Amino acid sequence: MRVEPGARGLRFERITPGLQDAHTHPLYWGLALRGLDLGGLTDPEKVAGRVAEAARRLPPGAWLQGQGFLFHRPPPPGLLDQAAPEHPVFLRSRDYHSAWINRKAAERAGLTPGTPPPEGGGFLRDGEGRPYYLLERAQDLLTPHLPPPGPEDLRRGLEDLARRGYTALHALGYEPPEALEWALKMELPLRLWWALPRGAWRGWRPGVYGEVHLRAVKFFADGALGSRTAWMHRPYPDGSFGLPLDPLEAIREEGEEALRAGFTLAVHAIGTRAVEGVLEVFQALAPLAREKGVLLRMEHVQHVRDEALPLFKGLPLALSLQPLHLLEDRALIGALGFPREEAFRFRSLKATGLPLAFGSDAPVAPPEYALNLEAALNPLHPREALEEEEVLEAHTLGAARAAGWADQGLFPGARADLTLWEGGKPVGRVYRGRLEIF
Fold this sequence. Notes:
Blueprint: E1 2-3, E2 14-17, E3 19-24, H1 26-32, E4 36-37, H2 44-55, E5 64-69, H3 79-83, E6 89-93, E7 98-101, H4 103-109, E8 121-125, E9 131-136, H5 151-163, E10 166-172, H6 177-184, E11 191-197, E12 207-209, E13 212-220, H7 248-260, E14 264-269, H8 272-292, E15 296-300, E16 317-321, H9 325-336, H10 346-350, E17 356-358, H11 369-377, H12 388-395, H13 397-403, E18 418-422, E19 425-431, E20 434-437
Parallel strand pairs: 3-10, 4-5, 5-6, 10-11, 11-13, 13-14, 14-15, 15-16, 16-17
Antiparallel strand pairs: 1-20, 2-18, 6-7, 7-9, 8-9, 12-13, 18-19, 19-20
Helix pairs in contact: 1-5, 7-8, 11-12, 12-13
């Protein structure tokens, strides 16, 4: 990044309010930038080949971590043991809702044939009954045994997002609470809207801490499509309906408590049953949200039935979407047999009158504005397409509304967070009075 401290007379194709990524996980994006990139791989054999190659560069016993694969069927047991017999291996799927491990990793975590899966999680087991593929919260049994992330990983993720033209991001409650403590001690390269995980918010007070705005509590109503854990009305090919995670009644009860404490709620909902269940919860909590003057948030909103659309209207709610996921999920939706017309309903959701906020869900997908633009202009059904200006609005003013930031825009007295454009892509930004060209 090149900083021009006193430049004059620079001209750009376009100047807009600062870009925001309205759903990201900056700590884990920073970790992904230094891990084994398995993006685009769908064949377990090819993933194992990458692992074997990476293992040769590591000392025996060192952890090998990576992310980004998306398999159409479960990988065979034993493959990672052959690829890296001397290294514990932990690989996250593209959606981060499942993980593939080898026996060394299972041994480090104490996972045995007798280990039961936790609530909200599941295992695939090898021929001896040992877990080797972890679904949803089963990953929590292994992650404490990984090398812990540090402030440098958070900084790496934040600085990368700043170099892409973003001036703010919304950190959506996957980071451990200590990541918030690291952020509070940093000179930040962008403004942060922060959500704490369910159960981890007590003891914190919502408010503005410099460039960190602590505002929300994050819940998970379900998992993700690629891991077959999005909670659907229609069954997957294996007869399952996905995996509900936080019970809806628990979201309502703890959500009410968090609202009374001054937080808002951000609830992950991808499948049709999750979306409609969360709408019921939000209907119950809407009077309290209005009383507190906050917008609730639904994150992802990826599969929506026609009968659910009228339920959105009039709620104190912002919809946080990641259009770029359809670029990877396009073929998956068809393969799983789910109706294309129920997926990625950008125009239908905009027609509810609720603000749309766009993000990437990095590290699930790279935080590239151009990918969201491509996807939103070319959805699964043509009637759901947005215009280019609407995509930009969802990344700027729509994201600001979802965050409760009334000082974002191009008007006298607005915060001077700006993104500079040439050739249809960000080439610079203004943040905290500094012009940065990259």
